[in-house]
Amino acid sequence: MIPKDNLILIKNIQIYSEDRFIENGYIKMKNKKIIEVGVLSDLENDQDYQIIEVPNGYIAVPGFIDVHIHGVNGADTMDATKEALDTMASALPKEGTTSFLATTMTQERKEIEKALINAGEYMKTQADQGKAEVLGIHLEGPFVNAKRAGAQPIHHIIDPNVSLLKEWLALSNHSIKLVTLAPEQPNGLEMVRYLKESGIIASIGHSDATYEQVVEAIEAGANHVTHLFNQMKGLHHREPGVVGAAFLHDELKAEIIADGVHVRPEMVKLAYKQKQREGLILITDSMRAKCLKNGTYDLGGQEVTVKDGKAVLEDGTLAGSILKLGQAFKNILNYTGCSIEDAIQMASVNPAKQLNIYDRKGSIAKGKDADIVILDHNREIFMTICRGEVAFHKEDDIK
């Protein structure tokens, strides 16, 4: 039986709230929102609530936000169907993700447009019941540099085109929130300026930009870097490149795929030491093969082989990941020695602030969306709550 007004109470929980750590606390939720966070000894009026009690020592952290994810569990944003986005939204709570940007990739124009239209329509009608929320679209390509294509099909790469972007914004019902582009390409800075004026995140990625070109992009309004280290001009003592610029400029928030494959643990630690917790955003950049068995899968019309935790194209190029955001959370703790508060900053706070939605997501606080992840002693996902609905419970999953 669903309680009146969807009243849910989590008790006996260690809480990493927005402004403090509560050793033995409670969280009250009503109609998708957090209405009270406090110390258990102060709890009053728990009648009519569905009570969730968890084992001693389990912790509550804010829901994870993945700003760069292509697919999961056999579905991909580029499938351009409601069913694909439903599959993604249903699967992601299992890894602690409570909201995400549906991410496109470089493809022929009509295929990108189908995906944009579909995501825009989906956002208007997406169900609230126990699923991760699609916050918008991350347009990754086609405005990138062919020299740093990676798994982006080279024959569909084009120069930045503001007129085309305006058409795509309209088609998507203005759902594009982040655009990955190479600012050194013709019209690149013009697009960065337009994105800045439009309140859209301009991200430097799949880019061969020099340090000076990145600085120009920052001055034009760029404030984000797509999957740091991967498919960009690397750090060199005579040419700092995109990586060096990311290290030196606090204006840039940098995504990182902390899977130990795309970026080895020592380099994740180096990035953390340079950018600190305020400067990094954990992402998955995952593809449809995540949660599936080893085998051969499709990525933008290209054949991808997944084996032993690694996804590669025929020529051996890494092709997205099969990383789960909950695992990235654990990895960043292990790779860097950072605190849980630091990991929360990178998995929840920073993406919410970057997307300008920190007023409603990214932390556990009164008035915010009831997006909560409960972790067990091993920091594995025990339960995920999406906007006040239990979306994943490990015990149910085992059954």
From TrEMBL:
Domain Amidohydrolase-related: 59-390
Superkingdom classification of source: Bacteria
A Pfam family it matches: Amidohydro_1
GO-annotated molecular function: N-acetylglucosamine-6-phosphate deacetylase activity
Keyword field contains Hydrolase: yes
Keyword Metal-binding found: yes
EC numbers: 3.5.1.25
InterPro entries, A to Z: Amidohydro-rel (IPR006680), GlcNAc_6-P_deAcase (IPR003764), Metal-dep_hydrolase_composite (IPR011059), Metal_Hydrolase (IPR032466)
Keywords (A to Z) from UniProt: Carbohydrate metabolism, Hydrolase, Metal-binding
PANTHER family hit by this protein: N-ACETYLGLUCOSAMINE-6-PHOSPHATE DEACETYLASE (PTHR11113:SF14)
Family: Belongs to the metallo-dependent hydrolases superfamily. NagA family.
Name of the protein in question: N-acetylglucosamine-6-phosphate deacetylase
Species assigned in the record: Neobacillus sedimentimangrovi
